[in-house]
Amino acid sequence: MWNFLKKNEPQTESRRRREENRGVQSPAVRSTQRNQREIKRQQRKLKREKQRAEKRENRKVQRDLKREVRKLEREERKIEKEMRRSDRRNYTKTSATLQQHLVNLRKVKAICNAVRAQAKENEKRRATKRGDRPPTQPTESLVTLMRNASEVMGAMHKQMPPEQLANIIQEFQTEFERITEAQQLIMVHS
Predict the structure, then answer these.
(1) pLDDT means per 10 residues in the chain (190 residues)?
(2) CA atoms within 13 A on the CB side of 47
(3) Which of 51, 56, 58, 72 lies 20 to 30 angstroms, CA to CA, from 138?
């Protein structure tokens, strides 16, 4: 009969202890637990987003490296072709310059392939050890690898700037055209 008074009366210290012992939680404790669960859920979501962003970044680096290697291979074939032409025409200076550039180009290509292999290895490690380390570590190592590769490429460009190589190739082509014209004139007059 007096139960309605118990519900409406202010909570006393002893009543609160009894409810805690029975497992009844106050609204403040429940909302705190709810907030903690929400925070954990958001942290997991952020972790997944970081992992996705890292995967995207890694794929982008892989594509860029692959593109760079293909570009270097095209350049290598072009230089080899020009070297064969200059060897046939006995242009020793041009041939020597092209050989040096070819060696440097192959070094850069090897470095790019090594960076690409290390990037793949980092991606495999990251996939197998998801929770063991923070997701930014592979990205940071890729950044350092890319920085090293760009420094090597910069050093190669200092030794033989691309503009200078283009000028040498253009000079070779003009000399080649002049010589073929001269040979045609000699054949016509003889």
Answers:
(1) 51 66 63 82 89 85 87 90 87 85 86 83 73 56 76 74 77 79 73
(2) 11
(3) 72
CA angle 27, 30, 33 (to 5 degrees): 150
Q: What is the pTM of this model?
A: 0.47
Q: What is the pLDDT of residue 132?
A: 47
- Taking alpha carbons only, the member of 149, 105, 133, 139 closest to residue 119 is 139
Domain boundaries, the chain: 45-129+136-163
Backbone angles phi, psi at 9, to 5 degrees: -75, 150
Structure tokens at 2: 């007096």
Q: Which stretches within the chain are classed as H helix?
A: 3-8, 13-22, 27-88, 92-128, 136-159, 162-189
Nearest residue to 136 via CA among 58, 54, 55, 59: 54
36-50 exposure pattern, b = at least 16 Cβ within 10 A, e = fewer = eeeeeeeeeeeeeee
**Whether 104 contacts 47, CB under 8 Å:** no
Quickly count: other Cβ atoms within 10 Å of residue 139's Cβ. 17
Euclidean distance between CA atoms 59 and 64, whole angstroms: 9
Region class of 144: left (phi > 0), else alpha (psi between -120 and 50), else beta: alpha
Q: Using alpha carbons only, what angle is made at residue 103 by residues 96 and 90, rounded to the nearest 5 degrees?
A: 20
